[in-house]
């Protein structure tokens, strides 16, 4: 009965590799997000999709490519991984856009690039 | 520049005591202000959401206040419990033409000790 789930929970990989993180929500929400939390614990929004359509892209390198096959899924593919990509990545969803709606976060994926 | 600042950076209190966390922001305009609780290794969980016209909102032992004139918010925790140990993040939503911009504060790390 998990609301927002992410896989994998941990990901260790080498520089230059390409990896994907998957996110699924079973809340029937229209909007999904990807956030990055760095080592200083600062959360920063990366992308937002509303009904499979990209609505927020916050100056993220184009090595990061989100993909929403349907409104319940938002995956994040990262090409040519760099050391600075090491962080915890959180997926979240909300019924609609942000104004007034609560966001539900997934458990996070800890990515370590060596 | 739209920013959110929080104080203190970290706080240690005895179980059963009350505490107040502060959030100052320069975001303008804003549609709503949120407080999240993030346990170690977990995703943030929403505590309160307040629009610019609301002054106070409670969620159990958590009470958030908002002064839109001075651009300050506080989160008061009553009768603290060990499980309140977490990071508390203030988030301000800045409405833009096509989407809402999410601006996170750096968080306050709270430790409740027996």
Task: Give the structure's gist in a few sentences.
The complex is a heterodimer of chains A (114) and B (114). Chain A has no helices and eleven strands.
Which features characterize this protein?
heterodimer; A: 114 residues; mainly beta; four-stranded antiparallel sheet; 11 strands; B: 114 residues; six-stranded mixed sheet
Verbal overview:
The complex is a heterodimer of chains A (114) and B (114). In chain A, the strands form two sheets. In chain A, strands 2, 4, 5, 6, 9, 10 and 11 form a seven-stranded mixed sheet that branches. Chain A has a four-stranded antiparallel sheet with strand order 1-3-8-7, with no helix packed on it. Chain A is globular and about 40 Å long. Helices cover 0% and strands 55% of the residues of chain A. In chain A, 34% of the residues are buried. Chain A has strands at 4-7, 10-13, 19-25, 31-37, 43-50, 53-57, 64-70, 73-78, 87-94, 104-105, 109-113. In chain A, a hairpin with a 5-residue loop joins strand 4 (31-37) and strand 5 (43-50). In chain B, strands 2, 4, 5, 9, 10 and 11 form a six-stranded mixed sheet that branches. A five-stranded antiparallel sheet of chain B has the order 1-3-8-7-6, with no helix packed on it. Chain B starts with a strand and ends with a strand. The model of chain B has no long low-confidence stretch (mean pLDDT 92). The A-B interface holds A 4, 40-45, 48, 55-56, 90, 92, 97-100, 102-108 and B 31-32, 41-46, 49, 51, 87, 89, 93, 95, 98-102, 104, 106-107.
């Amino acid at each position: 009965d998990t609301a927002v789930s992410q896989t994998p929970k941990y990901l260790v990989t080498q520089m230059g590799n390409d990896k994907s993180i998957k996110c699924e929500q079973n809340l029937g929400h229209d909007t999904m997000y990807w956030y990055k939390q760095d080592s200083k614990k600062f959360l920063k929004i990366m992308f937002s999709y509303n009904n499979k359509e990209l609505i927020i892209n916050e100056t993220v390198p184009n090595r990061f490519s989100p993909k929403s096959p349907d409104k319940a899924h938002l995956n994040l593919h990262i090409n040519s991984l760099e050391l600075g990509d090491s962080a915890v990545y959180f997926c979240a969803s909300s019924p609609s856009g942000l104004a007034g709606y609560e966001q539900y976060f997934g458990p996070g994926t800890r990515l370590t690039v060596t | 520049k739209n920013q959110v600042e929080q104080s203190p950076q970290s706080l240690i209190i005895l179980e059963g005591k009350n505490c107040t966390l502060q959030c100052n922001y320069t975001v303008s305009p804003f549609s709503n202000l949120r407080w999240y609780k993030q346990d170690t290794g977990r995703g943030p969980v929403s505590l309160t959401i307040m629009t610019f016209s609301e002054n106070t909102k409670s969620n159990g032992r958590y009470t958030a206040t908002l002064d839109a004139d001075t651009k300050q918010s506080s989160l008061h925790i009553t009768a603290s419990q060990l499980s309140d140990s977490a990071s508390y993040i203030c988030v301000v939503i800045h409405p833009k033409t096509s989407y809402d911009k999410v601006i996170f504060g750096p968080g306050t790390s709270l430790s409740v000790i027996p």
